[in-house]
Amino acid sequence: MNKLVIDGGMPMRGEITVQGAKNAVLPILAAAIISRGECVIHNCPRLRDVEKTSIVLTRLGCKLNRSEGTIYIDSTDINDCRIDEKLMREMRSSIIFLGAILSVFGKAEVGLPGGCPIGLRPIDLHIKALRQMGVRISEEHGYLNCECSHLVGADIHLDFPSVGATENIMLAAVKADGETVITNAAREPEIIDLANFLNKMGAQIRGAGSSIISIKGTERLHGAEYTVMPDRIVAQTYLIGAMMTDGELLLKGAEPSHMQAGLSVLTEMGGRIRRTQDGLHIKNNGKIRSINIIKTMPYPGFPTDAQSPFMALAAIAGGTSVFVENIFENRYRHVDELVRMGADIKVEGRSAVVRGVKKLYGANVETYELRGGAALILAAMAAEGRTQIAGIEFIDRGYEDIEGNLSRCGIKIHRVRF
Ligand code: UD1
């Protein structure tokens, strides 16, 4: 088992190039199989979830090669439509293969998904939509069995703008008979990235990024080359790190238009943020101020994935901040750990009241999910003394070389094996 050991109190100063977005690269890799040809994907971060996705692709029969940040996928000989239960349980986002596999074979057999334990994560919207597209779905022994004679376009209204469901429908619709129109679609930038990639493969998708997406089915797609967008949650994590440690950071490759909700909160809390030619620069302007209320919402609202890193920041702000988590239940598992480090946080249902304290203190803590783990790293960087963080395999799912990036910026952090 690995742990991260962090000696707090050092300012984070330097520059970091933002990695490719985890939540964009995973559906893009899945989408590559629909081409039945060769795809070249640049800016793929080295992450556990990307490795797992590569394993899924190989098991399906694709040939894969990786060189630095580029993954080459040849799906010409793809021959399997099954993803085993173990792989699915390790990574919830593998549900995204459902739409892609159905596009290729008209049938799919996938284990029921797992992932970070952050509350109920049902897939009812995915299933309802695919049924509308003519797919027969049954559940047996932990597997979803899906079959159709051919996929048909449909008008699909999502009761909630689910990111995964929107992506799955797009993947299933690109080769369906006729047109699919999704209303109340998710508007996240990662949806646009997936649509752009599919369109490069010859798909006909319009409206991605708005709440109405239309997809005209096409008979054949082809291979394509694509560069994955920068990770907006990782970018915000590093910006917060610089703020919490009274540092100064140049974040290369960051895309400010993807993170307006977070940047506006950071500015309100005292960050001086400036756009540069190739990214963003942040400096703390002396004091961290509390924020009245942060409510997580579907994009372009405040992202649930940034809730815990911002809570670490609020923990040392001057004043009281309130958080309301509207997307996932049980996404406050980092709170008890922050409290062990001296934070003053009370949770009541979906709300958390954070009274800023003057200092956090190093402690032995554990993370149970990805973004909560990032919050603990941030708290440890600002804390007095040493913090040891267990459960870092969750952090490795989404942050590429986090200890390398932070230590190059002056943070005392290293990984130890226990
Ligand atoms: C994606 C992101 C995740 C992010 C989340 C919300 C990936 C790989 N993961 O997850 O990092 O936190 O968006 O921005 O892109 N829901 C249902 N039924 C469904 C599907 C979802 O009720 O069929 C609910 C979920 O339980 C949750 C909410 O909708 O409460 C949001 O889920 P969704 O947008 O689907 O998130 P994911 O695609 O799983």
Structure commentary:
The protein is 30% helix and 27% strand. The protein is of the alpha/beta class. The strands form six sheets. Strands 22-23-1-24 form a four-stranded mixed sheet, with helices on one face. Strands 2-15-17-16 form a four-stranded mixed sheet. Strands 4-5-3-14 form a four-stranded mixed sheet, with helices on one face. Strand 12 and strand 13 (212-216) form a beta hairpin. Helix 4 (97-105) runs parallel beside helix 6, helix 5 (124-132) runs parallel beside helix 6 and helix 10 (307-314) packs parallel to helix 12. 52% of the residues are buried. Uridine-diphosphate-N-acetylglucosamine (UD1) binds next to helix 1, helix 5 and helix 6.
Strand order of the largest sheet: 22-23-1-24
Number of helices: 13
Quote the distance from N terminus to C terminus. Answer: 5 Å
Main sheet overview: 4 strands, mixed
Name the hetero compounds present: uridine-diphosphate-N-acetylglucosamine
Helix fraction by DSSP (H/I, runs of at least 4): 25-40%
What does the overall shape look like? Answer: elongated
Unreliable spans are none
Strand content is 25-35%
Structural class: alpha/beta
Q: What is the typical, i.e. mean, pLDDT? A: 95
Assembly level: single chain
Radius of gyration: 21 Å
Number of strands: 24
